[in-house]
C-alpha cells in the first residue's frame, strides 16, 4: 500500500509511466486501482461463456483467444490506418527498425533532404536560374553542387538502412515451434501471432510476451535469464497456473486449448501484469509471475509451452525501447541558426542592391541609349528582377557544400575512431562537449562476475599471501569437485582446513555450502549451480573449492560433500531472505541428531542478534572495516545450537504462520525473529564485484575534465553505493545525501496529505502540473550540484526520464552508456548513446551511436577523439564561413561599379567549382586530421576538454568574427586589383584592365589567399595537408588555362567565353605583383594577430604546444592514486538480489525434479514425433 504522502497526482487513473522515481520506495507505479474481479457465466461451454460474459473491466480491454487467429481479425478489433485502410490492433511479431523500402527510398529520402532549409533553398534557386529575365548565372552552377550533396547524403542513408534491414531479417527469421494444423511446426518469429501456442527449449530466446502454460519442470516452473531486460544475469523463476500445468502437457491438449484472456493493454511495465484467464467455465487470475517476456532466455528448463499475449511492437521490451530519435549535434543546431542569419543578411543585401539598381535606372539607365535592352520595364520592376538576380548571385553566402562537407568530415572522423576503438558514427564533435554521462552499472562498470576474495574466520583474516609460505595461487587439485576458477592466494587457510585444529574453519565453509537457495544439476558429470544472485553463486562455489561441495537437495534434505565425505542433512526449515530481514537462515538436523541453525546476512542485522558472549566480535568488526575500505561486499556468518524441545515449540508457531491466510509474510518474519537470536559469530566473507579494467582511472580523468557521471541501475541501494566506492565515484571525503532523507526537506517530493489539499489538487490540474515540473526542476538542480549521482531501483523507462530531465532543465549535452536491452531507451534519449558489447546481447549496441567493448575506452573516445573532432569541426566551420564570405562579397563591392546590375565578378565555371574543387580539399583534410596536441597529452591534461563544454571555439561571436574577416578580405580582394587596374597599360601596350582579366586576377588572389589561410589555421602539418594546399592552387591554374583555351571554346562556345583570358592576363608581371600584394595584405595582419594572441593571451592548448618537447621527455604521466579509506564505518552490502519465495519453492517441493516420463512420451501421444527447434 502507498502511504498518504506518496499518492500520485491522479489517484483514480491508470499508473503514469512518466512519473520519475526519486527514491527506493517510489520507483514504480503499481496497478492498485483494479476493479472487482469479473466472474464469467458458469452455465455454458467456453465459447458460449465467452460471448455472454460480463463486459471487461475498463483496465483489461486486451482480449486474446488461444488457437484462434480469426478471432483477432474481427471488425471491432480493426483500427483505421489511412483513409479506409484498416488493420488489426494486434501487432504481428515482425520487428521493423528500417526507414525505407525499395519503392519508398527515393521519394522519402528526397523529401527528408529537402526538409533541410539549405537544400530547399538551392532547389528554389535552381528554379529561379531557369528564368532568363532574372538570372545572370548559368543553371549548372547550382545543379552540379546540389546533385553532389543529395547523392552523397542518399548513399550514406542507404548504407545505414541496408544494415537495419539485415538486423531486422536476422531477428524476424529466427524460428520456434508453433501449433499449426493440429501439431507443432517450425515457424519463423515474424509469422507468430497473438493467441498462438508455442514451444520453447532450453537456451531459446523468447519471441514474444507469452503466458506460461506448462513446462518440463515440477509444477511447471520455468527459469529465465532476464539480462536483456534488467541487466541481471541471475535466474528468475516463473510458474504456470496449476490448472494449465495439470491439463496442458500433451500436444493434443495444447492443440484443443481454447482459453480466453482479458488483460491490460500493452505497456512498458516490466514487472507488472494484470489479467484473467477464462477456461473450463472458471476464471483464473494472472500476474507477472506467469508471464515470459520477449528478450529473456529459457534456462535450466528442458522445454516449456506458452500462449502469445503481446507480439512484436506490443511487447514490453519494445514498449521500453522508446522511439528512435533523429539526433543532431549542438553544432548542427547552431549552424542552422547561423544559416538562417545568413538568409536574413542575404535578403537585406539583395534588397538594398535592388533598390540601388532601381535608383540607378531612374537616374542613369533610362538616359543611356547604349544600355537599352529592348525591354520597356520600369525602374522599380527592373529593381524587383534584380532582387532575385542578386539572390542567385550571392547564394554562395549560404554554402550548399557546407552540409555535405560536414557529413564527409564526420564520416572520415568516424573511420579514424573506428580504427582506434572499433566504433563508428557521425556525431563526433558532440563528443567534445559532454557535460553529463549516464552509465548503467551491471556489465558496464562491472563485469558482473563475483569473486570470493577474502574471509575472516574466528577473528583471523585469510586471503593474501603470507611470508614464509608458498607463493602463487592455491592448488585445488586435491579436491575432485573444484571448478578450477577460484584464484586464492592464502595457503595457510588450506592448511587449517586439512588440519581441523580449528573447528570454526570447517564450520564456516559448511555454512556456505548449506545455507543458500542454489539449485544444482549435473552436466557431463560436472556440478552446475544455478543461483538466484551472483553473490550467492560465488559463495557456494567458494565452499565447493575449499572442500565443502553442495551436491543435491530434495524437498527436505540437502547433501554435502565434506572433504570427500558425502553427508545428507535433514532440512527442517528455510528462513528466507527479504530486503527488510537482510539475512537468511536454514535449520538442519545432522546425521547425529543435533539441530543447528545457520545464518548469513548483513553485519548490521547479524550483530544485533549475536549472543552476548559470542567470541571474536571486535576482531570480526575490524576485519569488516578492512574489507569495507577495499570496497568488498561483506557478509557475516553465524550459527546456533537448538534444543529439540525449543525447536518443537518454535515449529508449531512456524507451521501456523506458514498457513496463515492473511499477512503471512509478516507472521513468518515475526516467527523467524524468535529463533534468530543468541547467535554465535563464525566470521565474515568478502566478495569482489569485479570492475571492468580501467574504470576508476577513467572516472577520475573524466571528472578532471569537468564531466559529471551519474550511475542509473536497477540494483538495490547498498549494491549501487558499494560499486560507487569501488570505482571511486564516491570516496571517503564524499558527503552522501540519500533521496529518502532529503526529498521531504529539500526537494519536497511528497504530495499533499490533507483532504483540502487533495481537493485543491483535483480542481487545479494545471497548477499541479506546474508544481510537478517545479519538483522535477528542484531534483535536477540539487542533483547537478552533486559531484556524482547514483540512482538505484530504476526501470528502463525511468532511466530515460532522468536523462530527459537533465536535457530539459540543464540544456546540457548528455551521454548514456549501457550494455543491455534495459538501457536502450536511455541510450536513445541521450544526445550520444554508447553501447557496450557484453554478455547482455546486442540490442544496446544496435540502438547506440557508438559501441565498444569496455567502459575504459570512454576516456579515449571523449578526451581524445571527441575533443579533436570538436576542434576540427569548429575550425572547419569558421574557415568555411570565412572563405565563402570572402568569395561572395566581392560581388557586393563590384555592384557599386556596374550599376547594381547583378553581374558576376567571376567566370561562371569558377563560381561552380570554387567550393567543389578549388578550396574544398584542404579544409576537409583539416577537419579530418588536425590536432592541437597529441593523444597522450590530451589524456594527460583532461582540463583541455572544457573548451568544448563552454562552446568557446564556435559560437555567434566566432561566427561574426569570421563574417568580419570575410568582409575585410573581400574588400582587399576587390579594391587592390581595382586600384591596380585603373589607368594601366601592359608591357606590350595592351590595356590589361578589361573585365575578364580583372575577374581572373581577383579569382587567382582569392584562391591563393584562402588556401594559405587554411595553412595558418592548421596545427598539425603532414605531407597530405601541404600537398592539398599547393595542389588546390595548382589545380585551379590548370583548370583555368584549360577552360580559357580556344579548343574548348570551339566545342562549347556558349559555356566557355573567357577564351585566352588567362594566358593574356597572367603573362603580365604587373598582374602577378598585384596578386602578391593582395595576398600579402590579406594574410600579414592575420599572422600578426595570431602571434600577439599566442604571446600575450595564450590558451591552455597554446601553453602545452609550446612545451610539448619538454612534456614528451618527461616520464609517462601516471594517475595519482585516490586516497583509499582506512577504517570506515560504511558496510559494503551483500547483494541478495532475488525475490522472496525461493525457500518456499524448495521446502514445498515444487522446484524439486521428480522422475518424469520421457519428453517424447509426453508430447507425442503415441503417434506424433517430437520435432526439434531449428536454432536461429
From TrEMBL:
The keyword Cell division does not apply. ATP binds at residues 440-442, 536, 577, 600, 633, 713-715, 793, 799, 822-823. Its EC number is 7.6.2.1. Its main location: membrane. Residues 845-1099 form the P-type ATPase C-terminal domain. Belongs to the cation transport ATPase (P-type) (TC 3.A.3) family. Type IV subfamily. This is Phospholipid-transporting ATPase. It comes from Canis lupus dingo.
Amino acid at each position: 500500500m502507498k502511504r498518504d504522502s506518496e499518492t500520485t497526482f491522479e489517484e483514480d487513473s491508470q499508473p503514469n509511466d512518466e512519473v520519475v522515481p526519486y527514491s527506493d520506495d517510489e520507483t514504480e507505479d503499481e496497478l492498485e486501482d483494479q476493479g472487482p474481479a469479473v466472474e464469467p457465466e458458469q452455465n455454458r461451454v467456453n465459447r458460449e461463456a465467452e460471448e455472454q460474459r460480463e463486459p471487461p473491466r475498463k483496465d483489461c480491454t486486451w482480449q486474446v483467444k488461444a488457437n484462434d487467429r480469426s478471432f483477432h481479425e474481427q471488425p471491432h478489433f480493426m483500427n483505421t490506418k489511412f483513409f479506409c485502410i484498416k488493420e488489426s490492433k494486434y501487432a504481428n511479431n515482425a520487428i521493423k527498425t528500417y526507414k525505407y523500402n525499395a519503392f519508398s527510398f527515393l521519394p522519402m529520402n528526397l523529401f527528408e533532404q529537402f526538409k533541410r532549409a539549405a537544400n530547399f533553398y538551392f532547389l528554389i534557386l535552381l528554379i529561379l536560374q531557369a528564368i532568363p529575365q532574372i538570372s545572370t548565372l548559368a543553371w549548372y552552377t547550382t545543379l552540379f553542387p546540389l546533385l553532389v550533396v543529395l547523392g552523397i547524403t542518399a548513399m550514406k542513408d542507404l548504407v545505414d538502412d541496408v544494415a537495419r534491414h539485415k538486423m531486422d531479417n536476422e531477428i524476424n527469421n529466427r524460428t520456434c515451434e508453433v501449433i499449426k494444423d493440429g501439431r507443432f511446426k517450425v515457424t519463423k518469429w515474424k509469422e507468430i501471432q497473438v493467441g498462438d501456442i508455442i514451444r520453447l527449449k532450453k537456451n531459446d530466446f523468447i519471441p514474444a510476451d507469452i503466458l506460461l502454460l506448462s513446462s518440463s519442470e515440477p509444477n511447471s516452473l520455468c527459469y529465465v535469464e532476464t539480462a536483456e531486460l534488467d541487466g541481471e544475469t541471475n535466474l528468475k523463476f516463473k510458474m504456470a497456473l496449476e490448472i494449465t500445468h495439470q491439463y496442458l502437457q500433451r500436444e493434443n491438449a495444447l492443440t484443443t486449448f481454447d482459453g480466453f484472456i482479458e488483460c491490460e493493454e500493452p505497456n512498458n511495465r516490466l514487472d507488472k501484469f494484470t489479467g484473467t484467464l477464462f477456461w473450463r467455465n472458471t476464471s483464473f487470475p494472472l500476474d507477472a509471475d506467469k508471464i515470459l517476456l520477449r528478450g529473456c532466455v529459457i534456462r535450466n528448463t528442458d522445454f516449456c509451452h506458452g500462449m502469445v499475449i503481446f507480439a512484436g511492437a506490443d511487447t514490453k521490451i519494445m514498449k521500453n525501447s522508446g522511439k528512435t530519435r533523429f539526433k543532431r549535434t549542438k553544432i548542427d543546431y547552431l549552424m542552422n541558426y547561423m544559416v538562417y542569419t545568413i538568409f536574413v543578411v542575404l535578403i537585406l543585401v539583395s534588397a538594398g542592391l535592388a533598390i540601388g539598381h532601381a535608383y540607378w535606372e531612374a537616374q542613369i539607365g533610362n538616359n543611356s541609349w547604349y544600355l537599352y535592352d529592348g525591354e520597356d520595364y520600369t525602374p522599380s520592376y527592373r529593381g524587383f528582377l534584380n532582387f532575385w538576380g542578386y539572390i542567385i548571385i550571392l547564394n554562395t553566402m549560404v554554402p550548399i557544400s557546407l552540409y555535405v562537407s560536414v557529413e564527409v568530415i564526420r564520416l572520415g572522423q568516424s573511420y579514424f575512431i573506428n580504427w582506434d576503438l572499433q566504433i563508428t558514427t557521425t556525431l563526433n564533435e558532440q563528443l567534445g562537449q559532454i557535460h553529463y554521462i549516464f552509465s548503467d552499472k551491471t556489465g558496464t562498470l562491472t563485469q558482473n562476475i563475483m569473486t570470493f576474495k577474502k574471509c575472516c574466520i574466528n577473528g583471523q583474516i585469510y586471503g593474501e599471501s603470507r611470508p614464509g609460505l608458498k607463493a602463487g595461487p592455491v592448488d585445488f587439485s586435491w579436491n575432485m569437485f573444484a571448478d578450477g576458477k577460484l584464484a586464492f592466494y592464502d595457503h595457510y587457510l588450506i592448511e587449517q582446513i586439512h588440519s581441523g585444529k580449528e573447528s570454526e574453519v570447517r564450520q564456516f565453509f559448511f555454512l556456505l555450502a548449506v545455507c543458500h537457495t542454489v539449485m544444482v544439476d549435473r552436466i557431463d558429470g560436472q556440478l552446475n549451480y544455478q543461483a538466484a544472485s551472483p553473490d550467492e553463486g560465488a559463495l557456494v562455489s567458494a565452499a565447493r573449492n575449499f572442500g565443502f561441495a553442495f551436491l543435491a537437495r530434495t524437498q527436505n534434505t540437502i547433501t554435502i560433500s565434506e572433504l570427500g565425505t558425502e553427508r545428507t542433512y535433514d532440512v527442517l526449515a528455510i528462513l528466507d531472505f527479504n530486503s527488510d530481514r537482510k539475512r537468511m537462515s536454514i535449520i538442519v538436523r545432522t546425521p547425529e541428531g543435533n539441530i543447528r541453525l545457520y545464518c548469513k546476512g548483513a553485519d548490521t542485522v547479524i550483530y544485533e542478534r549475536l549472543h552476548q558472549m559470542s567470541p571474536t566480535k571486535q576482531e570480526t568488526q575490524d576485519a569488516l572495516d578492512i574489507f569495507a575500505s577495499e570496497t568488498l561486499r561483506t557478509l557475516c556468518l553465524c550459527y546456533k545450537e537448538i534444543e529439540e524441545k525449543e525447536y518443537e515449540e518454535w515449529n508449531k508457531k512456524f507451521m501456523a504462520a506458514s498457513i496463515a491466510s492473511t499477512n503471512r509474510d509478516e507472521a513468518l518474519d515475526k516467527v523467524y525473529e524468535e529463533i534468530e537470536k543468541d547467535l554465535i559469530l563464525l566470521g565474515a566473507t568478502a566478495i569482489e564485484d569485479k570492475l571492468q579494467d580501467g574504470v576508476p582511472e577513467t572516472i577520475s580523468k573524466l571528472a578532471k575534465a569537468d564531466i559529471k557521471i551519474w550511475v542509473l541501475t536497477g540494483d538495490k541501494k547498498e549494491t549501487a553505493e558499494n560499486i560507487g566506492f569501488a570505482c571511486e565515484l564516491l570516496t571517503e571525503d564524499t558527503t552522501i545525501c540519500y533521496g529518502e532523507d532529503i526529498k521531504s526537506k529539500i526537494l519536497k517530493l511528497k504530495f499533499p496529505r490533507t483532504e483540502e489539499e487533495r481537493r485543491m489538487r483535483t480542481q487545479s490540474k494545471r497548477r499541479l502540473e506546474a508544481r510537478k515540473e517545479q519538483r522535477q526542476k528542484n531534483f535536477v538542480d540539487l542533483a547537478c550540484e552533486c559531484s556524482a549521482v547514483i540512482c538505484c531501483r530504476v526501470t528502463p523507462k525511468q532511466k530515460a526520464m532522468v536523462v530527459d530531465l537533465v536535457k530539459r532543465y540543464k540544456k546540457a549535452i548528455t551521454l548514456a552508456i549501457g550494455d543491455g536491452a534495459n538501457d536502450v531507451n536511455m541510450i536513445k534519449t541521450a544526445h550520444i548513446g554508447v553501447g557496450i558489447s557484453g554478455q547482455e546481447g546486442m540490442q544496446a549496441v544496435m540502438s547506440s551511436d557508438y559501441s565498444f567493448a569496455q567502459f575504459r575506452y570512454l576516456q579515449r573516445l571523449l578526451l581524445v577523439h571527441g575533443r579533436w573532432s570538436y576542434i576540427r569541426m569548429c575550425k572547419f566551420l569558421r574557415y568555411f564561413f570565412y572563405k565563402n564570405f570572402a568569395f561572395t562579397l566581392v560581388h557586393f563591392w563590384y555592384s557599386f561599379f556596374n550599376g547594381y546590375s547583378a553581374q558576376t565578378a567571376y567566370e561562371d565555371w569558377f563560381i561552380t567549382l570554387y567550393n567543389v574543387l578549388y578550396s574544398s580539399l584542404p579544409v576537409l583534410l583539416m577537419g579530418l586530421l588536425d590536432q592541437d596536441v597529441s593523444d597522450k597529452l590530451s589524456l594527460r591534461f583532461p582540463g583541455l576538454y572544457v573548451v568544448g563544454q563552454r562552446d568557446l571555439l564556435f559560437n555567434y561571436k566566432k561566427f561574426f568574427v569570421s563574417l568580419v574577416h570575410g568582409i575585410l578580405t573581400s574588400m582587399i580582394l576587390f579594391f587592390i586589383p581595382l586600384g591596380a587596374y585603373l589607368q594601366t597599360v601592359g608591357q606590350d601596350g595592351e590595356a590589361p584592365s578589361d573585365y575578364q582579366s580583372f575577374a581572373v586576377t581577383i579569382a587567382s588572389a582569392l584562391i591563393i589567399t584562402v588556401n594559405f589561410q587554411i595553412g595558418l589555421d592548421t596545427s598539425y602539418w603532414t605531407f597530405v595537408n601541404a600537398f592539398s594546399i599547393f595542389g588546390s592552387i595548382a589545380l585551379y591554374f590548370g583548370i583555368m588555362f584549360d577552360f580559357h583555351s580556344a579548343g574548348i571554346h570551339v566545342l562549347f562556345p556558349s559555356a566557355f567565353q573567357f577564351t585566352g583570358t588567362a594566358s593574356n592576363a597572367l603573362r603580365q608581371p604587373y598582374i602577378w605583383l598585384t596578386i602578391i600584394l593582395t595576398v600579402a595584405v590579406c594574410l600579414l595582419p592575420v599572422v600578426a594577430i595570431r602571434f600577439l594572441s599566442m604571446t600575450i593571451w595564450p590558451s591552455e592548448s597554446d601553453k602545452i604546444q609550446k612545451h610539448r618537447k619538454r612534456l614528451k621527455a618527461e616520464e609517462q604521466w601516471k594517475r595519482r592514486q585516490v586516497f583509499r579509506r582506512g577504517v570506515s564505518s560504511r558496510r559494503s552490502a551483500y547483494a541478495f538480489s532475488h525475490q522472496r519465495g525461493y525457500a518456499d519453492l524448495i521446502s514445498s517441493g515444487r522446484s524439486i525434479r521428480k522422475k518424469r516420463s520421457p519428453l517424447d512420451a509426453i508430447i507425442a501421444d503415441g503417434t506424433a514425433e517430437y520435432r526439434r527447434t531449428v536454432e536461429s
